[in-house]
């Protein structure tokens, strides 16, 4: 069903319920009229951002101009800001923390509005010790690493997982062995002692693409960003970024770099061992709590997508800059916005 027909049916439903101004779905006639008016001016580039700390530098940028007639539309707890960035028509929306919020917000954006593609940006933890605070990363792939099959104690890596034969779970993407991180070793042979937590196996998400068969699942683990968007991002690497907050400067000037992989989960990672595991196991650089959710929704909706994440700290410490993360987090947010603006200008050049 096309978006225009979908919105038309919703409007007809709202108007037709005995003159009531609100349908059971809580979509008022006034709101549907505004959505229709916004879409008449589309398509838009969707800009999805986790929180106000990351969004405000964009809203305060001279590159952003709010729509004079309808600067925003509030719906379902979200504020969709309408305007232009670098003379490109955009709708900016803040998700809030976590995979759930990011996924729901992105789905609302794509279901309600005429959107040509999505750019997600913000700050992130860093799993790659070769990069530093303030660097801006643009991964080619994203994965959600918080969906697990937790194996019972006593089973080994060659033992089939429950429901694996049904296609519900898989051992394809590897595991985290908890005993590898025990503090104690066996006194006699020096080997790691067993751990009752055993291991967890990383699982792909079930997806239901709009061009697939309804209720027939597919699976996605590493979700690629749009090829054209990623190619355009190559030119963003020439951008000069800021490296100082007042008189405090980073050891080197931050840079924009395209990287292979980023990962997301509903976990704030402040643990050096787990950070090292994520980097060595998955070749991950930015780690956050939203990007993979945005990627998965865009993948299901067949919309172009890319994420831009500035590094705010080395997750779990271990860097000489660890104690300075608070100082440079605002700089990281600004660098993410600067990279976003450069990307948009190049995308529509």
TrEMBL record:
Where does the signal peptide begin and end?
none
Q: Which CDD domains does the protein's record reference?
A: MTAN
Q: Which Gene Ontology terms describe the biological processes this protein takes part in?
A: nucleoside metabolic process
Q: Which domain of life is it from?
A: Eukaryota
Q: Which PROSITE patterns match?
A: PROKAR_LIPOPROTEIN
Q: Which GO terms describe its molecular function?
A: catalytic activity
Instruction: Please name the SUPFAM superfamilies in this protein's record.
Output: Purine and uridine phosphorylases
What name goes with this protein?
A: Uncharacterized protein
């Amino acid at each position: 069903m096309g978006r225009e027909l979908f919105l038309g049916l919703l409007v007809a439903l709202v108007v037709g319920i005995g003159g009531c101004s609100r349908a059971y779905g809580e979509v008022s006639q006034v709101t549907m009229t505004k959505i229709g008016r916004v879409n008449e001016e589309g398509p838009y580039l969707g800009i999805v951002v986790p929180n106000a700390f990351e969004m405000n530098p964009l809203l305060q940028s001279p590159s952003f101009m709010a729509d004079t007639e309808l600067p925003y539309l509030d719906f379902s707890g979200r504020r969709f800001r309408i305007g232009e960035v670098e003379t490109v028509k955009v709708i900016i929306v803040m998700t809030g923390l976590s995979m759930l919020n990011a996924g729901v917000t992105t789905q609302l954006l794509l279901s309600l509005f005429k959107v040509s593609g999505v750019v997600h940006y913000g700050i992130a933890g860093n799993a790659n010790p070769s990069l530093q605070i303030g660097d801006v990363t643009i991964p080619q792939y994203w994965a959600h690493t918080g969906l697990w099959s937790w194996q019972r104690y006593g089973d080994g890596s060659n033992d089939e997982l429950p429901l694996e034969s049904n296609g519900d779970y898989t051992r394809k993407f590897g595991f985290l062995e908890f005993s590898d991180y025990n503090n104690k070793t066996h006194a006699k042979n020096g080997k790691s002692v067993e751990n009752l937590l055993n291991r967890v196996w990383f699982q792909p998400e079930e997806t239901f693409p709009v061009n697939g068969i309804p209720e027939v699942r597919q699976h996605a683990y590493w979700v690629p960003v749009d090829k054209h968007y990623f190619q355009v991002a190559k030119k963003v690497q020439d951008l000069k970024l800021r490296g100082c907050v007042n008189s405090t400067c980073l050891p080197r000037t931050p840079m924009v770099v395209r990287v292979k992989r980023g990962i997301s989960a509903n976990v704030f990672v402040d643990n050096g061992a787990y950070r090292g595991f994520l980097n060595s196991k998955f070749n991950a650089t930015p780690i956050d709590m939203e990007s993979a959710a945005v990627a998965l929704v865009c993948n299901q909706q067949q919309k172009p997508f890319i994420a831009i994440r500035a590094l705010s700290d080395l997750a779990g410490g271990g860097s000489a800059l660890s104690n300075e993360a608070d100082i440079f987090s605002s700089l990281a947010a600004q660098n993410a916005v600067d990279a976003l603006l450069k990307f948009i200008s190049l995308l529509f050049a």
